[in-house]
Amino acid sequence: MADKPSLPLLSDSTVLVIGLGMIGGSLAAALKQRHACHRVLAWDRDRQSLAIALERGIIDSYPDSLELAVDEADILVLAVPILGIGSLLKELVGLEVDWSRKVITDVGSCKQIVLESARNAFGRLPENLVPGHPIAGSERSGVLAANPDLFEAHKVILTPTEQSAEKAINRVTGLWAACGADVLHMDVAHHDEVLAKTSHLPHLLAFSLVDTLAGEKDNQDIFRYAAGGFRDFTRIAASDPTMWHDVFQANRQAVLEALDAFREGLDTLYQAVSSGDSQTMRGIFTRARAAREHFTSMLENQAYLKPMTNSQLTYVAQPGGSVRGDIRVPGDKSISHRSIMLGALAQGVTEVDGFLEGEDALATLQAFRDMGVVIEGPHNGRVIIYGVGLYGLKQPAGPLYLGNAGTAMRLMAGLMAAQRFDVELTGDESLSKRPMGRVVDPLRDMGAEIETMPEGRPPLKIHGGRSLKGVSYPMPMASAQVKSCLLLAGLYAEGETSVTEPGVTRDHTERMLSGFGYPVAVEANHAALSGGGSLTATTIDIPADISSAAFFMVAASIAPDSDVLLKHVGINPTRTGVIDILRLMGADITLDNEQTVGGEPVADIRVRSAQLKGIEIPQELVPLAIDEFPVLFVAAACAEGKTLLRGAEELRVKESDRIQSMADGLQALGVDARPLPDGIEILGGDMGGATIDSHGDHRIAMAFAVAALRASDEIIIKDCSNVATSFPNFVELADSVGFRLKVIEKIRRD
Ligand code: S3P
Q: Coil, helix or strand for 532?
């Protein structure tokens, strides 16, 4: 049966569904309802099913014999139980029909056996055969359960063979696409392995559990009182026994392998329960819960807050307004990352409050879970970390995915370089473009072995088992990430590791190491420690992030009649550049309630409207306000006169090129903003409305939401999903104090 170039279009084709069970019936119904093809025919040994289907309008007709049905059909869909495929194909081969214009596909959940059956029947794999498997279903069976929307937004896996003709593949793809399905291709063996784990094993367990409990003496009570858990777990035990009997016969090997792995996991849990081993139980349950909550995003190689990252978010910011109220912005991102890292490597249990439940910090948390650390939470900012000691991390099963988080990648590069195992650090599109040579080069000087992509970009492949030596490193740029990376590597290095920076940068690593009882010598812009010590678990109270508070500081300064109180904000002197710069511009900022919490200074910050004026930003403040410049540029656009920033080339390698992204956006709003290689010159003036591209950079998106408070027209900000990396509740909080932000969500289906 050769594939002739004259296959009819789907709209001119007659589709024959052989086997009118739930799947076959649903396919027929979907095609009919969508008028996707010329005619839908069916064939089934059970004439009653055919009559019902005809009566319900699920099919157009059912010819008197299989031969007549096949003769009329252009596309044959074999929807019989999987062990019936072999004899059906043999029957088909014996028919007196012209195969040259026909395509054959099937819906079975094991694919290897379809190929074997086809080889047996045809003596080879025909060009017109394209095996398929819709990943959709229900525990209900039979044509009465047919559902025309069953495949809508579901995946259909095709496993074309090397012999499958392209036209036949396109035809089957079109068939499923017409039913609303997303079609993808997979290798046959891989399909059967994956399905054994994701579908066949869970069905086996459900059948077994129900049968075991049903056989017990007190089964009446068990079923009478079995509420949610039992019902949820065993729904699929009501599935078609014949179909599943066939699946376990057909995919025996892969199912047995999956069952072996499951038995091993079950044994571990059995041991843990019988010996009261809480740590193992907590480990299994917290890891499983996180995986279950986030598996969709993990599968898509995205960060972990599913509702945000599965969609394209656009902000629509209405112009004008005042900003008034008391708020607490989420926890500090830098400190959140470090709390997980040091907590994991400490001896004992570290309790953290105020943890930032944003994607960046969650990526770090997940990475340490992937290395065997038991971490409970986060729950309302509370995280409990069961430290494994400096040498207790385990090799993760795959690459550690760090999403958008540059801090996670750079700091972890230092830690990973000293482990006994190999590990790969990967990230999203933006992180994959960011320079890692700044940490990789000095780590190599310490003896690390790290492979990167060209120009030192991620992924980082870090080889384990190297012994590191302390270095004395004069840093070419002021970067807390580079400093922290080397200090963390230094925990494992022989001798002293010291760094000298060209300017003072945030010192959270040094402070937190001291909090964990690890001595660090700090003097101005020099920090040093010696390897060989250990960390002792502690409690950490993470203050609100001054980088997130900065958006409201500028908002309240530029919007008329504003008065906002930002509570419990971290005012570590290495982070307060934004306050100093705004005050130099004439902002009305007062600090109250100053105290030190867990080694970090905090205060309530009150900001009221003020007429700002342009300034030349002092060089020494640049590293102390490095993350706040996007919103400071908005302040400059609202100020009287010119603001000049120099010496800030680092802004070009943040989550986006922040000098260019901000200059483009401000110019679109009509502001005179002139980008410079290492800074920007902004002349304050009126702002109009525009559509702005945030380039997926959280701080650019939030900065333009602030700008709307002084714009004369609506600002539309595109690509805002990544706001969730640092400030998951930004829109709600902003709107609660007077912003008028709306979010438009487009679900990503690619
Ligand atoms: C950070 C350091 C800064 C900052 C980043 C967080 C940290 O980066 O921009 O958001 O937590 O150490 P650099 O070290 O690259 O300046």
A: coil
